[in-house]
Write a structure and sequence with these properties.
alpha/beta; 15 strands
């Protein structure tokens, strides 16, 4: 008979250890706004339209493909660069949609999600003292990654009008210095829902032409562009693609954010440096999921049909919001809808988001959280990647404001 082990109380910290010598690498970083608002939504029983993840299931065929790979014994380490069949499927998709040919052996790397991709791109390309241009509002992992590399973020703020958010390329050009190593762009854009157009890519190309500036293009919402528009990937622009790391995410495309699998496409010299860091960061990525994704990608319909799938949800949500006192900004891409609330309250954005969660029962994210120094614009972001009944419940509650 086994004798139960009694739990032992924590011992006091030994004398002589000076924990103040453990200087934080990210002294300004706390808990993310997404975690804070999701926790508050759970506590208050609110409809969580804050954090960007679906509340519906993925295609059962995708689960079957992964399960089949597990049962077939594909459970040991895959190649560090990713399962060849998946890299080939990625290259084929990019070629078919954007017309740019990447070599799957030397220019495609499978990653543990887009956030790992972004960190690894920055660690492999940015050295201490290098400057990185960040266009705000920006996803919250960008600046910590730059700081971990010893880089210096240089901020350029998007312009916002009733017609939406846009990048002021003249200000981006003015921010370039001899120390500029990387420009980060994101389209479709989180949190604003804006998208880059052909003119934007041409403006970016004009800025970097004749320099050795690299580009990190965050395109995780590439298959969520609406109203018959096409996604203007950096891959469509050969001059930009030649100096760019292009990041995407299976989690966003296939409704499996918890699987944390993405990829980076880049010219071979850039990919070579990326892989040097990648192999000592995560080394490699979940084997059966990679095989399952490779098999599932043989049918392009799921990502080709995604714009219509999410546009219907966007339109349902926007139609409901038109019955409220919110002001709707355009949502040309992503699964996010930004709204102005000046007709409702003069509270700061973070306070309004907490009030909305606590008193109305709908969680949102303050757009001010996406700035290095919070900027108050009276705008919050909702996520409409939810079941119709979830969206309708949220709309019923918001209509009471």
């Amino acid at each position: 008979m086994n004798t139960p082990i009694e739990p032992v109380a924590h011992s006091p910290l030994p004398a002589g250890i000076d924990f103040t010598r453990l200087a934080s690498r990210l002294p300004q970083v706390g808990t993310t706004i997404f975690t804070v608002m999701s926790a508050l939504a759970t506590e208050k029983g609110a409809v969580n339209l804050g954090q960007g993840f679906p509340d519906f299931e993925c295609d059962p065929a995708l689960v079957d493909a992964v399960t089949g790979a597990m049962k077939a014994g594909m459970n040991q380490y895959p190649p560090m660069t990713g399962v060849p069949a998946l890299r080939e499927a990625i290259a084929e998709k990019i070629g078919a949609i954007y017309g740019y040919a990447y070599d799957p052996a030397t220019e495609i790397t499978v990653t543990a999600g887009a956030t790992q991709s972004i960190l690894t791109v920055i660690l492999c390309s940015v050295h201490p003292g290098d400057e990185v241009i960040v266009i705000e509002p920006a996803y919250d992992s960008y600046v910590p990654a730059i700081e971990l590399a010893g880089g210096i973020p240089v901020f350029v703020q998007m312009e916002v009008t009733p017609q939406g958010y846009s990048v002021p390329w003249d200000k981006v050009a003015a921010a370039v210095t001899p120390k500029t190593r990387l420009i980060m762009v994101n389209s479709p854009h989180n949190p604003t829902g804006s998208v880059l157009r052909v003119a934007d890519l041409n403006a970016l190309a004009e800025i970097v032409r004749g320099t050795d500036i690299l580009i990190l293009s965050d395109e995780v919402y590439e298959h969520m562009v609406y109203d018959q528009a096409r996604h203007e990937s950096v891959c469509r622009h050969p001059e930009l693609a030649a100096r760019a790391f292009v990041v995407s995410s299976f989690g966003k495309t296939y409704h499996v954010t918890g699987w944390k699998v993405g990829y980076v496409a880049a010219p071979a010299p850039l990919t070579n440096e990326f892989r040097k860091v990648h192999q000592f960061n995560v080394f490699t990525v979940n084997t059966p999921v990679q095989h399952g994704l490779a098999a599932y990608m043989k049918n392009p319909a799921p990502y080709l049909e995604l714009p219509a799938f999410y546009q219907r949800k966007r339109d349902l949500f926007r139609d409901g919001l038109k019955q409220t006192r919110f002001t709707l900004l355009p949502s040309d891409g992503t699964y996010f809808q930004c709204v102005g609330y000046s007709a409702v309250s003069d509270m700061a954005e973070a306070d309004f988001a907490k009030w909305l969660t606590t008193e109305i029962g709908v969680a949102a994210i303050p757009v001010s959280a996406f700035y290095n120094t919070p900027k108050e614009s009276g705008i919050v972001r909702f996520c409409f990647a939810k079941k119709d009944e979830t969206l309708q419940l949220a709309l019923d509650r918001l209509a009471k404001i």
